[in-house]
Specification:
The chain is built from 17 helices and eleven strands. It has helices at 3-12, 17-35, 43-58, 101-108, 151-158, 175-181, 215-225, 243-246, 260-263, 270-285, 301-316, 335-346, 349-362, 368-389, 414-418, 425-430, 459-473; strands at residues 38-41, 70-74, 112-117, 164-169, 184-187, 207-212, 255-259, 289-293, 394-398, 434-441, 447-453. The chain is globular.
Length: 486
Amino acid sequence: MGIAEWRERLQSGDVSARELTDHHLARIDAVDATVHAYLEVTTARARADADRIDAARAAGEELPPLAGIPLAIKDNLCTKGITTTCSSRMLEHFVPPYESTVTERLWQAGAVLLGKTNLDEFAMGSSTETSAFGPSRNPWDPARVPGGSSGGSAASVAAGEAMAALGSDTGGSIRQPAAFCGVVGLKPTYGRVSRWGLVAFASSLDQVGPFSTSVADAAELLQVIAGADPRDSTCLQAPVPDYRAALRQPIAGLRVGLVRECFEQEGLDPQVKASVLAAAAQLEALGCELVEVSCPRFNDGIATYYVIAPSEASANLARYDGVKYGFRSEQAGSLAEMTARSRAEGFGDEVQRRILIGTYALSAGYVDAFYKKAQQVRTLIRRDFDAAFGRVDVLLTPTSPTTAFRFGAHADDPLAMYLADLLTIPANMAGLPAISVPCGFDADGLPIGLQLITGVLQEERLLQVAHHYEQAARVMDNRPEAALVA
């Protein structure tokens, strides 16, 4: 049952917000010791939120759009008075004195906070294995990763521990875990959703978006969190359309582009390829026209990303010096030694690796050869997309080359880990909206994700096509037995 149906039941009194909240808290108690989706469960806050909604309904007040809906929030979004750690020892005890714009909008819309979810440290990773507080596990198979960096948010929704969740996406950190966990994950257009209160990783790439069990629920959340924010200078001023109404628009006649480079990838699992091509055939049966398109620089996205993102991370994380806030080493004498030790002890290996890469790329003598060159390639990637959208309305690719891999599979090979985001990164490079929707299962019963991409600020069309596919394919109606997903 989706958010719209629950809203009707809550408004009519068939169910209370407290009952819905307690149901999810009980589910967390039952399975999160295994899944480890949450870093902190805010039980008292959740029940207080729910009780306020029930009191408002009892008083005859009109309920806001997300009234009583229990949500989980990725722990790199600031929540006033609630620890926000970024899964790092550096911020282990940081309690923000302010609320992020997106979470503030959720609470104003009546949503209930269940807790903060696990992630790769500072959102740097593709498996949630780099969290300083232990990895999250995939609800379909706890021996496998849930993806990353928003693995905790994806796992919480897949395991029934939240009705929906928020994550952040810098190079695929919403879509890839959504694919691994068999849920819907939406990355909006860069600037469509405010980043104010999101702890920065790579400021020109980061974007906040929802996880849900349906496209309709993703539209419900986007409706609330999208829109201009004077506190974020990169947030777009464009008016917010009715995303929920867009779901009902027909898709017959739309042109769907199959990106040739994505289906010719070395390392693309044949089962993933077959499932995604079957999804394309489903869209064709619904009246869409399939068109093969080429984005010649699509495969350059990952090399470009791993210059730009670490460079921006190097600058953004320079503020964590052991002086103003965050972790401070007690083993040092001088200020310089204290700063060095605080950063060495407070940041994990992957974060340190990316800071070093970024610092090198920005250093004198190398900035032209690396950072500026990467920005030029980024422009070429954007132009490839522009050319493709001159021929088609939406692009279709796999979300990830494989299904969820086992823990430790890439522990000694960072490059192999980075390649998990090969198909998602280009949309971030161009600032485009993209969504991952379940489209099948492999021989091990693990979910496969279909990625759809549209032009800037075309979330309506993105949601429209994804919803029609979802309703026709009914993938989750035929899901195999899973370890924790009921």
